[in-house]
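User: tokens in, sequence out, please.
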């Protein structure tokens, strides 16, 4: 026999279960109740009440507000037994079976992660999120656990109180939103806000209380004509009105930078239709908008196009009596159940009770998509992407074939491209939105039709991350950039070590670090990457190092060579078949390379820089990398000239500024490609407000060829300036 107080609690719990659950194993719940009561009999909460009250209240939340199944109720009663008492998981498994034991174990693991603050580690956080993939009831019971803890938060020390409130606002409330648990999400937000911003919470709460009677009178006045018309149409309905939640109101005040008195859309009315016919919701909508003038841009049809978490409803905002804005939500009873209880309303198991059906499986696919693949995201990056994907409003955009894609608000064509396929994202060069070419940074809106323009030569750049929104796009961009950086660093290191070995230069790690630091690079990897991306010329750099340090370099260490002996040595060891660059007026062909730091093209004023064993490096005369060498080692500078005839293509770059407009990118690429079939190697386009900013890397014959292209581009409407830049590395 148990105390009459606890017997009443058991009876109350069983009554709620019978009312809300599809089926109830009363023996299972009773046994879990009794074991939890026994296990916690000597424990007290911070409030001083028996600890058992906590698992009991958690079970009541699961039964009443989430309404899962009897296994979840038993798990809720037992969720702290393994962690806080002498009972072990094997005892739970032996007494209640694998399903209950696995849920209790999952909840314990989540608790352990948070208690040890391992959640700051991205990998641990990913494990936390994936814990729900096996059995989603783990997280749903955890929501109930956290909700009851938040309801009794005032009994904890201030430091722990603030930590739990912030954790709830950052993690649990967004999760509840993603799971469609609207009521729990709102309460978690308001309770967190209450402890994190005490004064603001109290001020808004006090103002709402003072206006409560006035608000109730207004809502009643608003709904009366609606009720009358709905009844005339013989619809079975329920109408309820309320003020919006405190945290929601606070966010409106911040967003609009206005006091509460100037926030007018504080009223929300919900119309629930008892029907399976969705068309009756639209009949109700037409009635509301006949009575009150709607605000067109505030209409949202989530019935035809549900949110990712399954939410369905019609939203509209109308001008009510006295010119006040009122939000109206219209939905069926089934839609309301999903809106309030989210994934729990879809809780359907197959006969073997082991795996979820297809409908429920869709609820957790997003976890696999976002977190199952390991990546190098920092905890901060992971948290930012997590909150964006869980919490942000959604937009609905379409492919050219009419397929629907749901993306977070403020998504760009970059996000859309990666949503289609990773390879489409990697190679996208631009996009057409509703038939017009736009930059990749363009913000998409619901209803847009988006077509991605791609090029096999295009790859992501670091700037893309600034206007990508989805976790999928951001993580793939970061992964690509980091992988390319690693590859560049390895390739650059190999190039550097091969060059200095050939020059017989030996430098200590300390000397090397000092040298790299003097070049203003943040670290060695950035230096190596700059070599591969051709921001610096290795041979020129080595000569600068030799000049600065007077480091012995083979036979050159004994004495500085005169220009004749150096040139003689060069022509004896480095003569090779080339394209005809003339040196010192001679007609011989000499081995040479074009410096990537300045990318000279025929028509440029050029000089040659003699390197030992590497031939002549051809630079533009105004190249910043040879200016420091011109005075220091003038004997290595040789006059060179272009051949009288040449058929080769040379790489160069142009930087274009202008006023952004539809089809501008198309006009520019057409102007370039139609002049002498000029080949475009790569394009990087961005826009800032109404400004267009583009970098194009091309192949040209000479400076005249480049000048003609620049003139053609300048004649395009909207172009402000066209300038040459050095090329890929700049």
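Assistant: Sequence out:
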């Amino acid at each position: 026999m148990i105390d009459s107080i606890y017997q009443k609690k058991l009876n109350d719990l069983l009554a709620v279960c019978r009312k809300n659950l599809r089926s109830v194993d009363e023996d299972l719940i009773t046994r879990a109740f009794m074991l939890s009561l026994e296990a916690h009999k000597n424990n007290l909460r911070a409030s001083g009440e028996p600890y058992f009250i906590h698992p009991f209240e958690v079970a009541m939340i699961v039964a009443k507000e989430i309404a899962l199944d009897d296994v979840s109720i038993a798990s809720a009663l037992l969720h702290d037994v393994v962690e806080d008492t002498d009972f072990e998981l094997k005892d739970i498994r032996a007494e209640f079976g694998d399903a209950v034991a696995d849920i209790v174990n999952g909840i314990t693991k989540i608790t352990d992660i948070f208690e040890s603050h391992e959640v700051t580690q991205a990998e641990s956080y990913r494990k936390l999120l994936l814990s729900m993939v096996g059995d989603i009831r783990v997280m749903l019971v955890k929501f109930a656990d956290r909700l009851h803890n938040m309801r009794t938060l005032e009994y904890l020390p201030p430091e722990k109180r603030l930590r739990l409130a912030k954790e709830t606002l950052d993690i649990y409330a967004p999760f509840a939103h993603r799971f469609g648990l609207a009521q729990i999400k709102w309460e978690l937000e308001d309770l967190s806000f209450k402890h994190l911003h005490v004064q603001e919470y109290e001020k808004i709460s006090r103002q709402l209380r003072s206006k409560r009677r006035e608000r109730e009178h207004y809502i009643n006045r608003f709904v009366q004509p609606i009720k009358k018309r709905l009844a005339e149409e013989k619809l079975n309905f329920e109408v309820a009105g309320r003020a919006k939640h405190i945290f929601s109101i606070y966010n409106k005040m911040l967003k609009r930078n206005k006091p509460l008195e100037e926030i007018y859309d504080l009223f929300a009315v919900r119309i629930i239709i008892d029907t399976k016919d969705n068309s009756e919701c639209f009949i109700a909508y037409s009635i509301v908008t006949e009575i009150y003038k709607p605000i067109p841009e505030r209409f949202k049809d989530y019935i035809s196009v549900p949110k990712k978490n399954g939410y369905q409803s019609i939203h509209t905002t109308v001008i009510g009596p006295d010119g006040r804005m009122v939000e109206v939500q219209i939905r069926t009873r089934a839609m309301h159940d999903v809106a309030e209880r989210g994934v729990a309303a879809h809780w359907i198991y197959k006969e073997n009770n082991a795996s979820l059906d297809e409908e429920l499986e869709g609820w957790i696919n997003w976890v696999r998509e976002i977190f199952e693949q390991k990546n190098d995201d920092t905890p901060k990056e992971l948290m930012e992407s997590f909150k964006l994907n869980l919490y942000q409003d959604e937009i609905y955009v379409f492919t050219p074939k009419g397929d629907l894609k749901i993306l977070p608000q403020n998504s760009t064509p970059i996000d859309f491209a990666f949503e289609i396929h990773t390879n489409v994202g990697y190679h996208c060069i631009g996009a057409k939105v509703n038939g017009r070419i736009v930059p990749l940074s363009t913000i998409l809106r619901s209803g847009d039709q988006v077509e991605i323009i791609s090029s096999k030569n295009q790859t992501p750049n670091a700037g893309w991350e600034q206007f990508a929104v989805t976790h999928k796009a951001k993580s793939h961009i970061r992964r690509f950039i980091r992988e390319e950086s690693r590859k560049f660093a390895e390739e650059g290191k190999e190039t550097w070590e091969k060059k200095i070995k050939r020059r017989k230069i030996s430098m200590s790690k300390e000397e090397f670090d000092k040298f790299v630091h003097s070049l203003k690079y943040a670290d060695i990897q950035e230096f190596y990457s700059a070599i591969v991306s051709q921001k610096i010329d290795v041979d020129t750099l080595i000569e600068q190092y030799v000049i600065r340090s007077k480091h012995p370099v083979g036979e050159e260490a004994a004495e500085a060579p005169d220009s004749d002996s150096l040139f003689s040595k060069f022509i004896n060891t480095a003569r090779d078949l080339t394209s005809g660059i003339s040196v010192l007026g001679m007609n011989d062909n000499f081995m040479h390379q074009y410096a990537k730091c300045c990318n000279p093209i025929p028509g440029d004023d050029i000089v040659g820089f003699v390197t030992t064993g590497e031939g002549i490096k051809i630079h533009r005369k105004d190249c910043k990398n040879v200016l420091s060498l011109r005075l220091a080692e003038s004997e290595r500078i040789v006059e060179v000239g272009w051949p009288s005839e040449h058929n080769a293509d040379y790489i160069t770059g142009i930087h274009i500024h202008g006023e952004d407009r539809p089809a501008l990118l198309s006009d520019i690429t057409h102007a370039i490609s139609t002049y002498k079939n000029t080949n475009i190697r790569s394009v990087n386009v961005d826009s800032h407000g109404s400004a267009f900013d583009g970098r194009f890397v091309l192949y040209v014959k000479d400076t005249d060829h480049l000048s003609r292209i620049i003139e053609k581009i300048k004649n395009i409407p909207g172009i402000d300036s066209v300038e040459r830049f050095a090329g890929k590395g700049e």
